[in-house]
Amino acid sequence: MATAIPAALKTADIARFAQRAGQVEKAKPSIAYWCNYWIVNQLISKGLHNVDDECTRYTTDLMDKLERVHLDDTRDHE
Questions:
Q1: C-alpha count within 13 angstroms, C-beta hemisphere, residue 46
Q2: Distance CA 71, CA 74 (A)
């Protein structure tokens, strides 16, 4: 993933999933999708998405990315 993880989220243990998503995004987009999904799930369930504006922006950008991938996949199967 190109977006840097905000400093306030460094303790959330999401870096390894973000790194893996970035590594496999082109070769295995479904794996990248689920890595990013896990990150969003962790951030929201732990309330980390509202820590500050940067964390909120990071979370919403990631959610937007998930939605784009989902829509693209849906269109591919029509």
A1: 16
A2: 5
Tokens representing 57 are: 């922006």
- How many other CB atoms are there within 10 angstroms of residue 10's CB atom? 10
Interacting residues of 30 by C-beta distance below 8 A, sequence separation 6+: none
Tokens of 67: 């939605």
Q: How far apart are CA 61 and CA 72, in angstroms?
A: 16
Which is nearest to 60 in space by CA: 39, 77, 75? 39
Q: For residue 76, what pLDDT band results from cuts at 50, 70 and 90?
A: low
| Those residues with Cβ within 8 angstroms of residue 56's Cβ, 6 or more apart along the chain or in another chain | 49, 50
pLDDT digits (tens, 9 = 90+) for 18-57: 999 999 999 999 999 999 999 999 999 999 999 999 999 9
